Amino acid sequence: MISGDNKKNIKILFIEDSEDDFELILNKLRKEGYTGKNTRVQNSEELIEALQEEWDLIISDNQLPRLNAQAALKITRNRDLHVPFIIVSGTIEDGDAVNAMREGANDYIIKNNLARFIPAIERELKEAENRKNRYKAEKALAKRQKEYKLLAENIHDLVCLHNPFGTYLWVSPSAKKITGYNYEELVDSAPENLLLSHEKGLLEERIWSVFREQSTIQSIRLDYKLRRKEGIIIYLETIAQPIYENKELKQILTTSRDITEQKLAYDLLIESESQYQSVVESIAEGVILYDEKGIIINYNKSASLILGLYDEVNKFTNLEEHFQLIKPDRTPFPTEQLPHKITLKTGKPCSNVVIGLPKESNILWLSFNSSLYLQPNGKTGVVISISDVTKQRVYEERVTAVAQELTTLIDTANAPIFGLDWYGKINEWNQVASKITGYSKEEIMGKTLIDEFILDGYKVAVTNLLKSAFRGKSVTNYELPIYTRTGKVVTILFNATPRRNINNDIIGLLGVGQDITELIDYRERLEHKVAERTKELKEALNKEKELVALKSKFVSMASHEFRTPLSTINFAANYLLKYSEKLTPQDSQQKLNKVMEQVRHMTYLLDDVLLIGKSEAGTIKVNPDVLNIQEFFLKMKEEVTNSTQNTHEIVVSLGLEKNMTVIDEKLLRNIVINLLTNAVKFSPGKKKVLLDVIYKSGLLTIKVKDWGIGIDDEDKSKIFEAFHRSNQAHAIQGTGLGLSIVKKAVDMQNGNIEVESELNEGTMIKVEIPVDEK
């Protein structure tokens, strides 16, 4: 914005792609003394961003590579209607210039002729300032007009402007509501047209002529009757004020209010006063009238009888001087709290204030009610009604004593007792309930039982239970968990019965409980212990069944797997004994090799059985040690190749982050030997087996893949069971222990094993073992 102290210190936004032209114009401005912030933009995005600020002047080239003056002008005017926008261009067609001026450009200058440049800037800055000031003034005027309109439309009184002779010049919208006439019907007419015929000259006499003749009168107040459009007579209270210009009366402003209801009520009150007087004297209640000073000015016969004042000699002006007044708790009744004094002071009525008047050995209990009334002199007094409530008070005291005894009994009972009203809110709370929950009676009274104490999972059930009790059904021995102040959950054995009033209507519930938290805890511990023992027995029984099944499988396997090699050994041995002299050395060696092969097979078989036995007994320990992985797996390849008579090529792929690690070599050997042996064994007639080893980031991954007989879906879930053999493997010699041994060795090292297999397509087994790299 332009500074008031320096009108040449301005903010200028240039829309110019030529640095030279920008500097040329800027130098021209500086020579003329213009300073301040200047910014150059070259496209619409930069222009929109720059227009987040306010600028005093915008100078734009006519044509830029990505923007032209017309588009820039449109963007500018969408955001600022007042900032001067001057086009300075090397060339511009007359038609373009005219269109730009129509669309809101303030001027256009040819760059080769800048003689008009500075005068144009000075002119437009001044015009812009004038436009802004005019815009602010118009906006302020519109705001005031809107406020005046809102005020006129919402005022309830009738506001009018009159000429000096009373003719309506303007009336507020409330005229329709008060008089029945609309604006058009009243303006230019005289108010006298609405007055009753015998009062036509009232306004001229009491208001219009007074203001015309006496310039010192500031306002006049007048009550009068007016006939509404539909003929109904109403009463108006009008305040009139003169409006002078140069001591000459120009207009009169009146504000009128419809007081019909108040006027009719007052007239009715005066008319009925005599009737009320006779009624007051005949009623049984005592009535005492006080004036505006709090002095008794009259009372009826019933008041005399109730108070024991039977003749004119005992007339009194105030109660406190003739009687000792006491409160229901037998303490002195404060004088300033007497009903008539409170009503006189505050204007508010008092109801059912009980005050005692001691008389000999008894106390006369009176109920006081007070309210304001209008005295004939127009001042406000107080009327007091009194009634004898001595019998009721004695009865209430007896009932209160019984209730207090009952309350004491409930409060000191050795069980949690609480009461609920019809809405489920607590209205009784004894000491034991406070002790169990941690909440005092003062804290919890009026709170909702469901919200404060009941666990979320029990809220619906308890809500239904309480609804049933409110319908008259008792609640018996319901185990109810509740929250205490500390958040602890205790269990109450809850019983509830409906509470009824004198009419036998259900008004609430009385709940009695017993804290059975320890009993519940003991029961739960006992049930938990029984469950644990049952689980242990089931596990032991299942273990026994598994062992029996394992033994049965072992006997079956041993009878088959040992018989075959033993038969082979026996046959070869007998053959050697019988034909040793006839056999060539090569034949004898062949038979001996057969014997050795079967002996190795039986040795592997016994090793597997012993390993499974140790595993089941839990006697195998993991003993990690430093191991060269590369040497280990190459050794395993050679060993399995030799043990399987070189029937398959074992292709080894090693992806090792490093060669050395720490792992249990024996367990790892069992895994690799069994996986490779199985791969060779169950891929008869195939050429190779793949062994892929990856060691990276503390994880050893072993993949063994063959293209053999595969495993069907039925057997996949059982392949890790001891002695289990798939349907496809019965024709191939084996114990069914290999994968069981692998699984146990992997589990012992916190590893993972996965199997992928398709029938007659082959099998891939992946083992992952986390390795301690320390």
TrEMBL record:
Domain Histidine kinase: from-to ranges: 557-773
Residue positions, PTM 4-aspartylphosphate: 61
The EC number(s) this enzyme carries: 2.7.13.3
InterPro entries: CheY-like_superfamily, HATPase_C_sf, HATPase_dom, His_kinase_dom, HisK_dim/P_dom, HisK_dim/P_sf, PAC, PAS
Coiled coil: 111-145
Molecular function GO terms recorded: phosphorelay sensor kinase activity
Domain PAS stretches: 144-214, 272-309, 402-473
Keyword flag Transcription: no
Record keyword Kinase present: yes
Record-annotated PAC domain positions: 220-271, 476-528
UniProt domain Response regulatory: residue ranges: 11-126
Annotated Pfam families: HATPase_c, HisKA, PAS, PAS_8, PAS_9, Response_reg
UniProt xrefs under PANTHER family: PAC DOMAIN-CONTAINING PROTEIN, PHYTOCHROME-LIKE PROTEIN CPH1
NCBIfam families: sensory_box (TIGR00229)
Record's protein name: histidine kinase
UniProt lineage: Bacteria, Pseudomonadati, Bacteroidota, Cytophagia, Cytophagales
